[in-house]
Specification:
The protein is of the alpha/beta class. The protein folds into 2 domains: 137 residues, Rossmann fold; 182 residues, Dihydrodipicolinate Reductase, domain 2. The chain has 12 helices and 13 strands.
């Protein structure tokens, strides 16, 4: 009798998100082996020793290790090469967003993948969060009636490390892209126009990098529903990620629980007793586990791709339009930044 294939998942990058993914992978019952590597070999060895997973010396060795799938959690500028090298070897890929640091790089990866049957899943973890799933179901069922307004917030309690900012791609590509993706996914509609503004009232590193630390955007969907997106790197109350979906009959609110960093000043209103969310890893712990569970199922041929690169491209178009709108202080149609050549749907 032939035994089932051992499920071996490789992981490139053992920084904060990579280490978190390694912790998740090692406890998934579907996964037999976890192999990790990093250009910082000492960090990779420390992570492997701490978590009880295996370390390999470099990406060449990792890709030659009979992998069932590869998780990419490295710096953004390395994503295109790692995606294409893995796919060319027939290895299914899970890659943290974004696909690439810019639109041209993203398009190049999709063109490379166009005729491939090897799946590539992009890490938009909010698609696996129970609240966002409930909101999507409410929209799909029609119980909210006609949608008229969406309000999305992604407010970080403190900025990332200063060295990260110049390479982040800017607040819309790095942070707001999650809101753009989830608005499309929850509503099933496309974003066709944006008007965005930004401000700097914090550390000078944002200004020096041509970025902003706080931003807002008004989005118009293809059925004329309006959405607002609010972003900040300095929300001292805590990590605040919410989505309000308002319809003609009812509404659905994601992220409004007893750990949301909201304080009512209405007399007699009770304050939340539990600590607020400190950051994205805590807020989305369940979602991160579910998306990697889905990736293993995708890599073993059990499910369809829940977030192919083409979906990431659509969110990137919106982020690019918002940045252009911010810089030029004008409304921008998403079609303006869309590539002239149609890219076939990526698997």
């Amino acid at each position: 009798m032939t035994s089932e294939r051992t499920v071996t998942v490789g992981l490139a990058g053992t920084g904060r998100i990579g280490t978190a993914h390694a912790k998740t992978l090692r406890i998934l019952p579907q996964v037999d082996r976890v192999l990790v590597t990093d250009i910082d070999s000492a960090r990779a060895r420390d992570t492997a020793a701490t978590l009880g997973v295996e370390v390999v010396p470099d990406i060449v060795t990792l890709l030659a290790s009979d992998l069932t799938g590869l998780v990419i959690a490295t710096a953004t500028d390395s994503h295109p090469e790692l995606i294409t090298r893995a796919v060319d070897r027939g290895i299914p890929v899970f890659c943290e967003k974004p696909v690439a640091a810019d639109l041209a790089g993203t398009m190049a990866v999709l063109e490379h993948l166009e005729n491939s049957t090897v799946p590539v899943q992009i890490g938009f973890q909010r698609r696996f969060d129970p609240g966002y799933n409930a909101a999507r179901a409410a929209v799909g069922s029609g119980e909210l009636g006609r949608l008229h307004t969406l309000r999305a917030t992604t407010l970080d309690p403190a900025p990332p490390a200063a060295a990260y900012i110049p390479h982040s791609g800017g607040i819309f590509r790095d942070c707001g892209i999650h809101d753009f993706d989830i608005i499309r996914w929850v509503t099933g509609r496309e974003i066709i126009e944006v008007y965005a503004r930004g401000a700097n009232r914090g550390d000078r590193v944002f200004t020096d990098a041509g970025d902003v630390d706080t931003a807002a955007a008004i989005l118009t969907l293809d059925d004329d529903t309006l959405a607002t997106v609010s972003l900040s790197r300095y929300n001292g109350a805590g990590y605040d990620v919410r989505l309000e979906v308002l319809g003609s009959r009812a509404n659905a609110v994601v992220g409004l629980d007893n750990r949301a960093p909201l304080r009512s000043v209405e007399p007699g209103h009770p304050t939340f007793a539990r600590p607020v969310y400190a950051g994205f890893m805590e807020r989305f712990r369940w979602a991160y586990t579910e998306e990697l569970t889905a990736f293993v199922a995708l890599a073993t041929g059990e499910i369809e791709n829940p977030c192919p690169p083409g979906e990431a491209l659509e969110a990137f178009y919106v982020a690019e339009a918002c940045e252009l709108s911010r810089v030029e202080r004008r409304p921008v149609a998403v079609a303006e930044v869309r590539h002239k050549n149609t890219v076939g749907q990526s698997r």
